[in-house]
Structure formats: structure tokens, C-alpha cells
Amino acid sequence: MQLVLPDELHNRIQALSAEGDSLAESTTYEKAIEKYNEAWSLLPDPKNEWEASTWLLAAIGDACFFSGYYTSGIEALQYSLTCPGGADNPFIFLRLGQCQFEKNEYAAATENLCSAYMLQGKEIFASESPKYFEFLKTRIQSPASGEW
């Protein structure tokens, strides 16, 4: 069953999220995180049952990654996996694996980067630093075709 937020609340959350997105696009990540957290605080409990929780936590995790707040990024992204559609979202696995890689949590990073790869292929790594895909290639067996 998909829960639906009341229109007024949904619009407020979307507006705050859009402000956060705008701040993130201008690389003002800490301010973006503040806006995303403000939107997050408006979600009724249990928070992980709302579709909005998935994209809010992904945005928080993304901004944390770019801010170097890897532990906070890991926490937000792991929780987003329990939200609607989170476990099917390759971007969430990508950022989670990247945060774990930066924390030297290589086993967990391998698992999550591999999940991102399995869900979307090497395209998910196209606009990322090549170090993440190169790392993954050293940790998993190459495809039967021999082509990544």
C-alpha cells in the first residue's frame, strides 16, 4: 500500500527539497543538507513508509558524500534502502558504496558498488571518479563476455 501525503505537506516538502537541490547544485552542500533535513523533519512517522523519504535520504546522502561527511552519508543511504523503491535504486547503492570506500570499508563498498553495477551496468559510473569502478573491477570477477 502506497501512503500519500496531504497535498499541503507534500508541497512544503517538495519546496524545501528543491531549495536543497539548488544549494547542492551550487556546491553549498552543508546548507543543502539543512534544507533536506528540514523537509525530512516534516515527514510523519514512520518516516521510511513515505516515497518522499527515499529521495530525501538519497539527497542527504549525496550532499554528505560531496561534503566529506561519509559516516552521515552511509547512515542516510542505508536507511533509504528501507524506504519505498530504495532497494531498487542504483544511485543509492552507488553513493553508499562510495561513502564506504572513502571510509576504507572495502567489503561493504564492494557489495554496494556491485549492486549499483548489477542494477544499471557500468553507465552508473560514467560521471564518477574512475577510481570507484576500477576498485570494483579488482574485487569481482569480470563478466563472461570479458567486457565490462
Question: Nutshell version of this structure?
Answer:
With 148 residues, this protein is an all-alpha fold. The protein is 67% helix and 0% strand.
Helical amount: 55-70%
Structural class: mainly alpha
Q: What is the number of domains?
A: 2
Order of helices and strands: HHHHHHH
**CA-to-CA gap between the ends?**
38 Å
Number of strands: 0
User: Count of helical segments?
Assistant: 7
Q: Main sheet? A: none
| Shape designation | globular
Percent strand equals: under 5%
Describe this structure in words.
This protein has helices at residues 7-25, 29-42, 51-67, 70-80, 90-102, 106-120, 130-139. The protein has 148 residues and is mostly helical. The protein is 67% helix and 0% strand. It contains seven helices and no strands. The protein has two domains: 1-67, no CATH class; 89-140, no CATH class. The model has no long low-confidence stretch (mean pLDDT 95).
Task: Supply database-style keywords.
mainly alpha; 7 helices; 0% strand; globular
